[in-house]
UniProtKB/TrEMBL annotation:
Family: Belongs to the OB-RGRP/VPS55 family.
GO cellular component terms, A-Z: Vps55/Vps68 complex
Subcellular location field: Membrane
Top-level taxon of origin: Eukaryota
Signal peptide range in chain numbering: none
Transmembrane segments: 7-29, 71-90, 102-122
Main location as per UniProt: membrane
Keywords: Membrane, Transmembrane, Transmembrane helix
Membrane topology: Multi-pass membrane protein
Protein name, entry field: Vacuolar protein sorting 55 superfamily
GO BP annotations listed: late endosome to vacuole transport via multivesicular body sorting pathway
Pfam family name, one: Vps55
Length: 128
């Protein structure tokens, strides 16, 4: 039980640092375009979650392909790549500064990495 609480506290701390980096990348230069990155990283795990429910992995004898899960992984990858590319495009077009781009990308990666870590550490194991 103590290891679970320590894991939650550590992941929450990393998530707070990620949000802080993205918010500071917006607030320090008074350009609030990098806040779109937060929305993308919060929405990114949803296709995996929805497609996992649709794929119905509870069947014992399932010989069909897992196209729903493949689509969910593809769309999640697309959203993560968009979250990385959006600050690059904004910096290239001159809407945000280069340090804001770096802070936004690092913060976004910390946010998404934390979300993935939460799902990995607290995923229920199936027993046969």
């Amino acid at each position: 039980m103590a290891a679970g609480i320590k894991t939650i506290i550590a992941l929450s701390f990393v998530l707070a640092i990620g949000f802080l980096l993205v918010i500071l990348s917006s607030a320090l230069w008074h350009k609030y375009w990098p806040l779109l990155d937060v929305g993308i990283y919060v929405i990114a795990p949803l296709p995996n979650w929805i497609c996992a429910r649709v794929a119905n992995p509870d069947d014992f004898m399932d010989s069909t392909s897992n196209s729903a899960m493949d689509f969910g992984r593809f769309f999640t990858g697309f959203l993560v790549l968009t979250g990385i590319a959006l600050p690059l495009v904004l910096a290239h077009s001159g809407h945000i500064q280069i340090p804001a781009m770096i802070m936004s990308i690092l913060g976004g990666l910390l946010i998404y990495g934390t979300i993935i870590s939460f799902t990995m550490f607290f995923q229920e194991q199936e027993e046969f």
